[in-house]
């Protein structure tokens, strides 16, 4: 589990500044902390919980402004991995320590490097199974080559290359709570274009502006909505979802509606 996935700075495209949406997020967060004066949160948690309404970076900026104004308070704690996590609570919460310990203990469980490695690999395997079920043929894995073309501009590669009906697709899997880095997103689109592939991002979530950009490049955003845990980790997934309010799940396969939308897009993109 990456540090960004736990608590880190939201990925923010260059040139973005305060706007009306940030002011709306600021007002919403003020009301939220007033209503939940006795609770303790961390930044990534707040960003993900509001992603249907606000980009992660907008919530992140609003949280920082509330900290600077003194409306909410916080402190940096250390996880057992050595990574810091920024905890946040209402300024009137005098007895935050017990709640902070409970949040930390749960974060320690899902942020364990072994859990993160398993979750990352599991996401790739779930996507691989879904594409195979939809009769896409894998032509490469962890590769930067397709046919006679080899990407040499950087050392990046693609998680998968699939073909169906004579069309090639470069697939990148991001089974994380956080957005992927915008620079990486744009680079992978360029990589696919160089190899003659249509880009597909199988991601838990992406900003709508990125999805539009991807559509304009002839690609497809396969939005999973949930971070996918292995079936063996279902109790942990339930605990993270119920106690932290984060979108995690442990299904045995990608939901049928997700693969149906992929096939419909493939059928339209001839």
Q: What would you say this structure looks like, in words?
A:
- With 270 residues, this protein is α/β, with parallel strands linked by helices.
- The chain has 10 helices and 12 strands.
- The chain has helices spanning 3-6, 20-35, 43-49, 56-69, 97-110, 113-133, 182-195, 208-216, 234-244, 256-268; strands at residues 40-42, 72-78, 84-90, 137-143, 145-146, 149-150, 158-164, 167-174, 198-203, 220-223, 227-228, 248-249.
- A 5-stranded mixed β-sheet has the order 4-7-8-9-10, sandwiched between helices. Strands 1-3-2 form a 3-stranded antiparallel β-sheet, with helices on both faces.
Summarize, please.
The protein is an alpha/beta fold and 270 residues long. It contains ten helices and twelve strands. Helix 2 packs across helix 4 and helix 3 crosses helix 4.
Q: How can the largest sheet be summarized? A: 5 strands, mixed
The second-level CATH architecture of the largest domain is 3-Layer(aba) Sandwich
Q: How many domains, in number, for the residues? A: 2
CATH class of the largest domain: Alpha Beta
Can you write the helix and strand succession as a string?
Answer: HHEHHEEHHEEEEEHEHEEHEH
Radius of gyration: 20 Å
Would you tell me the structural class of the helices and strands? alpha/beta
Mean pLDDT over the full residue set: 92
Strand fraction equals 15-25%
DSSP helix fraction: 40-55%
As for the CATH topology of the largest domain, it is: Trna Endonuclease, Chain: A, domain 1
Distance between the termini: 37 Å
Keywords:
270 residues; alpha/beta; Arc Repressor Mutant, subunit A; 2 domains; 5-stranded mixed sheet; 3-stranded antiparallel sheet; disordered N terminus
